[in-house]
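new request in #modeling-help
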Amino acid sequence: DAGVTQSPTHLIKTRGQQVTLRCSPISGHKSVSWYQQVLGQGPQFIFQYYEKEERGRGNFPDRFSARQFPNYSSELNVNALLLGDSALYLCASSFRTPSSGNTIYFGEGSWLTVV
Amino acid sequence: AQSVTQLDSQVPVFEEAPVELRCNYSSSVSVYLFWYVQYPNQGLQLLLKYLSGSTLVKSINGFEAEFNKSQTSFHLRKPSVHISDTAEYFCAVSFMNRDDKIIFGKGTRLHILP
């Protein structure tokens, strides 16, 4: 079975631009989470979706938004990019929500560089 | 406040020597505990997890971790490390029937010396 797949793997954007990152969860998984990992730090929680509803939001500005589609895939959008948004963006999926003890499985991530 | 602390940012250890990577957490509710490993330029892979039951959990590649509720710790150990264990290790916590987020520590870089 395919794991969590993310696209694109690498991208470079200019300050002020907008970016959309995509994620396909493991087949059968209904929960998708997004994390930002800045170089040298642990992943920071951005969003969690379960059955297409937002179930959690981390401490990120409104420039960050996400959605989950009927097929459980997800997109993360970041508007008005700042240099500080440069990071590895990780998508993770699980069968149910993390609060039920389900293990989350990560994709390889999307490396975003803002110049 | 909920938090995860990895006390060592880097741990150098000689090949075939034992290692312990420390993790402490703070939470007002029951938790689930995880260790993830990240190899250079890759995503995170689950190494092992504690959900309930036996407090000692083991991975297939020789790592083990013990949940200590009284000390709120979940230290990772391996009796003999290999060069291939060189990676960043992240301790993580999720919260039983609460927020649907996982909190990660800042990571410990395991550096194997030949």
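bot summary: Chain B has no helices and twelve strands.
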